[in-house]
Amino acid sequence: MSFPLLTATAVLPAIGAIATAAVPAARRTAAKWLALTVSLATLALAITVLVRFDPDGGRYQLTESHAWIKDFGVRYELGVDGIAVALIALTALLIPFIILAGWHDADPLETGSRRWRPTQGFFALILGVEAMVIISFEATDVFLFYIFFEAMLIPMYFLIGGFGDRAHEHGEEAASTQRSYAAVKFLLYNLVGGLIMLAAVIGLYVVAGNFSLQEIAQARANGSLHMATSTERWLFLGFFFAFAVKAPLWPLHTWLPNAMQESTAPVAVLITAVVDKVGTFAMLRFCLQLFPEASKWATPVILVLALISIVYGALLAVGQRDIKRLVAYASISHFGFIIMGIFAMTSQGQSGATLYMVNHGISTAAWMLLAGFLISRRGSRLIADYGGVQKVAPVLAGTFLIGTLATLSLPGLAPFVSEFLVLVGTFTRYPAIGIIGTFGIVLAALYALVLYQRTMTGPVKPEVSAMPDLRARELVVVAPLIVLLVFLGVYPKPVTDIVNPAVKSTLSDVHKKDPKPEVEAVAK
Amino acid sequence: MSAAAVHSLWTTAATAAEPISKINAPKIEYGQLSPTLIVVGAAIVGVLIEAFVPRKSRYYAQVFVSAVALVAAFAAVVALAADGYGTTKAHIAAMGAIAVDGPSLFLQGTILLAGLVGLFTFAERRLDPAAHGNRVDSFAAQAASVPGSDSEKAAVKAGFTTTEVFPLLLFAVSGMLVFPSANDLLTLFVALEVFSLPLYLLCALARRKRLMSQEAAVKYFLLGAFASAFTLFGIALLYGYAGSVSYGTIARVVDGTVTNVDPALADTMGNDALLLVGGAMIVMGLLFKVGAVPFHMWTPDVYQGAPTPVTGFMAAATKVAAFGALLRLLYVVLPGLRWDWRPVMWAVAIVTMLGGAIVAITQTDIKRLLAYSSIAHAGFILAGVIATSKDGVSSVLFYLAAYSFVTIGAFAVVTLVRDAGGEATHLSKWAGLGRRSPLVAAVFAVFLLAFAGIPLTSGFAGKFAVFKAAAEGGAAPLVVIGVISSAVAAFFYIRVIVLMFFSEPRPEGPTVAVPSPLTMTAIGLGVVVTLVLGIAPQYFLDLASQAGVFVR
């Protein structure tokens, strides 16, 4: 038997999480280094996956399959396609930066009980989330996926509720109340989504008799498994609801601004750049493959909801006074693009959407982590408290500008490629929706540049005047992300090569072909 | 579902009883009844210990005898199961009174383990500060002395302890062992009383807050007596209908395969009104024990007032026994009537799930909260009962096993969190527990997550099993409602976690007592079972599915 590479990629951070949690209270720094080392080792494994994966090979590669819970028809089945590989690589790439950026976020203010180890907990939870996210990307058994999709909520919940910004305008008491509110809101939204999906998962079992994605998809394709139209639609809705909460899609998005606002910047990045991707990824992998007909049936409504997300998220971002909330609404707008790309059912759209997931992960990480560095210097999240930072901390301002430009999809930076592909892909099939979606870009320019202008330019505010520039650790976090943004902006081929074959086979599951240029598009 | 499918739920190993011409000595299969007999025998030994062993050594003698008896009885269950009595050799013993089959043995094993873990929490003597140099447990020094009176003080000073709780526990366990395996209605009733009466007494024996404890016991006793009366009346009516109290005979009458009418009962036999009313009354009595809405009113008060170890034991073992009896009654006696009872049980399951979950939201006492949570769980289990399939039976068995360990563990944690007034059960006092005692809070969080049915815990595996069975049995709407009430229930479990981990600890908050290895074992076992059944449930699911066939 060959080395179970996929299992190892998920198990390594899990073991790392347990080890980190077990580090004695006094050895805080050791715990941090341990977590960082584990995350880097995981990155190495993820790169191995990337290298071993053959884009032109079979649909699912590096597969593993073992019996698990026979009574439930559940198998431990792993396998990756190009989309999953790209997202695993993204996850493994971002976690070390998240850990580095949050290096001091969980240092205890005062020494409480000797057994109270917030620092160890913080890094252990991050690694735990990483393990669960990776295995969700790998699972080709619906039940296995579901288990980690749900279980992931618990460490996330503790990360949001247990660790917040030091500074809060209304004092520690209010901060703690708002934090736990945000954490509970996050958990309840996602739990309700997950439980509704549970009903659909059970329904799927009743209909199909097992949970294997490949078996079910195959049986559906060759007609040996017939699903009544209404059954398929109900099951699709059950799955889609959970993913739409996670993604998040308007109108199920309201937990995201709270969660991102109250958590520390690295955790906010973890939410939006890593965990939420599981939602959009699952739409591609599970909704489209298991329920192709229902997906086509629901497409018009989903596209409209995605469009609303794009415009609504961007409009609300323009009006925010809180930096982190602004980033959160911007993310909602971006997720609208991703979902639009997926359900446009064209190869450009879906390739664009997958690429978008990767690029959004990198660009939001850069933008949000820089915003976090800014916030930690001044001790305020309010935009109005800043001004003229670029004169005091030019490197911080300069890198923040690149993050800003990436968010508004400036050509030459990575997000432009994906946004363009999504819009083109949507336009070829649904011209009206593509055109309205384009307004999202205009609004993005507005909120992103206004944020930059208000915080970085203008006269230097007295509270800002002593602000130190980026430290070495922070530079180490930011520089690689920016390099990647530029590189993938100029040369996205490495990612698209991996992703494209997977997108093609996903599309063929839905029995959709790209519309022929001109003739068919007009006929529609 | 076709009739044949329902009939696959039981084997017909039993032969019809011969007509009795003269009184023969009854043939009793002592070996097959050994689990119950061991426990009853040990209980009687316990009573003798109370009478003859000096006060100082009673505690040790009692704990030793009880533990040995429970372990031996469990070994007997395992031996019987290994011998095939759960599957191929399943049959009806003791002249038709007791069924020895898969569900019986599975539930008896569960009850015995729950009893053993319960015993550990009963025997805990390190939590309360020593009174006058004597170690004390959770039970009143002398039950007969009036709370707050001089005689109570004298009893405490003399270092009395109520070691009678151990034989009472064993008697309750023995009744519970018989209850799910009873194969005629009279045995069912006797078993019901045998396990209920000791529980009423145990509820009254709290060392702290004695008035509340006695109030709880009186409530439990009165309502329990009502429920017993209902059951008994129902039994009488069913006898009038079928001319027999034997499960098999009643089932045959329901199916219409028995034609010879007892002349003395010619007027009533076969009268469907008797069947429906009688069946409903017996089911009502069982639903009372299960704590299903609308027969749940006693649950919160009794759970809150009873000494916490008793609450834990009762919440786990009573539920197991009562659901076992309910399953057997519905699947063996009344399968022919399922078109009548299924809609009713649907309604009961729905109001139980929703009612338990919604009312729990407003609770401020941890024991009351767990009481309402147990009501909601009764609803989830009912969803599996309704499935009327082999999967339904085995899913309920699995759920019960998973649930009982979580429950005992959770209540054992409740006994640890204490302030000057004894256990600090008000939720506000649990604020910040995670900061002060991360380990205890984390363990309790694991139990809460299992209650909430989060994946990788036994709660999820159990919930999935019953919902799957229900969906396959055509009860998809029930599954949707179950899922919604799970979401509601998750809210209040999460609220406790928030309180423990995200709230600032209060300066005068409770402390966590360091327990003896006894309670630690109970809690540790709870955690291990919760995680093992969550991550690798296959072996236990197999066990439950092998045990899923009733003998008739």
Task: Describe the protein's architecture and organization.
The complex is a heterodimer of chains A (524) and B (552). With 524 residues, chain A is mainly alpha-helical. Chain A contains 21 helices and two strands. Chain A has one domain (5-523). Chain A has a two-stranded antiparallel sheet with strand order 1-2. Chain A is globular and about 70 Å long. Mean pLDDT of chain A is 84; it is low at 519-524. Helices cover 67% and strands 3% of the residues of chain B. Chain B has 21 helices and seven strands. A three-stranded antiparallel sheet of chain B has the order 5-4-6. In chain B, strands 1-7 form a two-stranded parallel ribbon. A two-stranded antiparallel ribbon of chain B has the order 2-3. In chain B, strand 4 and strand 5 (422-423) form a beta hairpin. The longest helix of chain B has 33 residues, at 210-242. The radius of gyration of chain B is 23 Å and the shape is globular. The model of chain B has no long low-confidence stretch (mean pLDDT 87). Chain A binds chain B through residues 67-72, 112-113, 115-117, 146-148, 150-151, 153-154, 157-158, 161-162, 173, 176, 179-180, 183-184, 187-188, 191-192, 195-196, 198-199, 202-203, 205-206, and chain B through 435-439, 449, 454-456, 460-461, 464-465, 467-468, 471-472, 476, 479-480, 483-484, 486-487, 490-491, 494-495, 498, 501-504, 537-538, 541-542, 545.
Greatest interface by residues involved: A-B, 40 and 38 residues
Tell me the structural class of chain B.
Answer: mainly alpha
Query: How do the strands of the widest beta sheet of chain B line up side by side?
Result: 5-4-6
How would a crystallographer describe the biggest sheet of chain B?
3 strands, antiparallel
Query: What separation lies between the terminal Cα atoms of chain B?
Result: 20 Å
Low-confidence stretches of chain B: none
Percentage of β-strand residues of chain B: under 5%
